[in-house]
Amino acid sequence: MTLKERVQEVLNQVRPGLQADGGDVELLDVTEDGVVKVQLTGACGSCPFSTMTLKHGIEMRLKEMIPEVKEVVAL
Predict the structure, then answer these.
(1) What are the distances in angstroms from CA 33 to CA 3, 19, 28, 72?
(2) Which residues span the domain enclosing 63?
(3) What's 11's domain CATH number?
(4) CA–CA separation, 38 vs 26, rounded Å?
(5) Computed over its alpha carbons, how large is the radius of gyration of the chain?
(6) pTM of the full predicted structure?
(7) How many Å apart are CA 29 and CA 50, to the nearest integer?
């Protein structure tokens, strides 16, 4: 399984919580140096807490499950 596939699998575990609040996350890219690029959509795209969701929710979970992940950025 590729790194990108592993990241997508973890994001699929996180998505129901985001979707319950009217938002979602879309995986755009995973670089070779472990940077995951995502786009927050729906309510998450305009939420003032989206940075917290990104860093303390999505990024923390990805780093916990996949040690190769160094950072998650929203585009």
Answers:
(1) 11, 29, 15, 12
(2) 3-74
(3) 3.30.300.130
(4) 5
(5) 11
(6) 0.94
(7) 19
